Amino acid sequence: MSRIVAGAAGGTPLKSVPGDSTRPTTDRVKEALFSRLESYDVLANARVLDLYAGAGSLGVEAASRGARTVLLVELAPKAVAVCQANAGLVNKALRNDLVSVRRGSVDSVLDSFAPVPGASAGKTWDLVFMDPPYPLTNEELAKTLEKVSLVLDVGATVVVERSTRSAEPTWPAGLEKFADKKYGETRLWFAEPVQVAAE
């Protein structure tokens, strides 16, 4: 059974999505990931976006470890129901409502945050988790990363989880990889926003 590894809600058991439609991040990978994020000092008071959330285990772990607000984004109805249940468990443990769930495709949700030309973005994020399904092509992922780059605050971190058999993501002009790490069959890619020179 999956659980919150550490933080204020540490030990809280989490529900899993039934069947094999999602690919949960193992506790070992989750522990290593969050140790790294804490060393980067990006968790405390962070605004966290968990895309392709599955059961929401990365987002709720961030909430337990000091994030300010967390949004879980998922499209599949069964996974959305599990996200809502896990958000409720963690919110109850933390005695607040900082974790919320939004049902929809990742791209449509990102489009709803994107800045209108001449206006500031409606939402900005400090930490974004992306654990897309393996069948998602690198070209599709690149388009989504482009949208992610538009809604990041200065100093944000983006974490992409992929199979070690998948190629490195194609990073848009507004994102730059600064680290990657292999854990068994999983590779984590870390990127940060960069200033794009005006043409």
From TrEMBL:
The keyword Methyltransferase applies. CDD domains: AdoMet_MTases. It comes from the Bacteria. GO terms for molecular function: 16S rRNA (guanine(966)-N(2))-methyltransferase activity. Its EC number is 2.1.1.171. PROSITE patterns: N6_MTASE (PS00092). Keywords: Methyltransferase, Transferase. It is an enzyme of class 2 (transferase). Residues 1-25 are annotated as: Disordered. SUPFAM superfamilies: S-adenosyl-L-methionine-dependent methyltransferases (SSF53335). The keyword Metal-binding does not apply. It holds the Pfam family Cons_hypoth95. InterPro entries: DNA_methylase_N6_adenine_CS, RNA_MeTrfase_RsmD, SAM-dependent_MTases_sf. NCBIfam families: 16S rRNA (guanine(966)-N(2))-methyltransferase RsmD. This is 16S rRNA (Guanine966-N2)-methyltransferase.
